[in-house]
Amino acid sequence: MKLISPLVFITVACAFLTAARSAHGHETVPQDWCTDRNTTPVIVSKFEWDKETLIEIGQSCGIVDISDGDAWSVANGIVSVYCDTQSPKGYSAVPFIVGPQSYNNKSHHETYRLEDGLAGSCAVCVPRRDRPSGR
Predict the structure, then answer these.
(1) What percent of the chain is helix, strand and coil (3-state, nearest 5)?
(2) pLDDT for 37-56, tens place per residue?
């Protein structure tokens, strides 16, 4: 059996998910995400991307013109769709960004640049009794 590369898988998944993904507003993690005490977050994927990787994944997801809009919004769109591709069946992963600081600070629309890269993880919220094994 021939396996496909992760980038090919992401490209195919992005084609379907970009059209289906709804906007959650400005926050990358909904305010009420995983607040039920009977649930727990589980990391399903970790990433640490440089500018070239961000652009490559973005273009595979249909984000062709990265100069249209601010870099934070472009990176946020890329990582959101990427996390969708990493979700185990029946779950929806959300991104948690740990760096760079320019992505997470209050003036991120002005200070973040794709050159800064992006690091973090994708997580799903599951019932405490049901912990998916990831991908």
Answers:
(1) 40, 20, 40
(2) 999 999 999 999 999 999 89
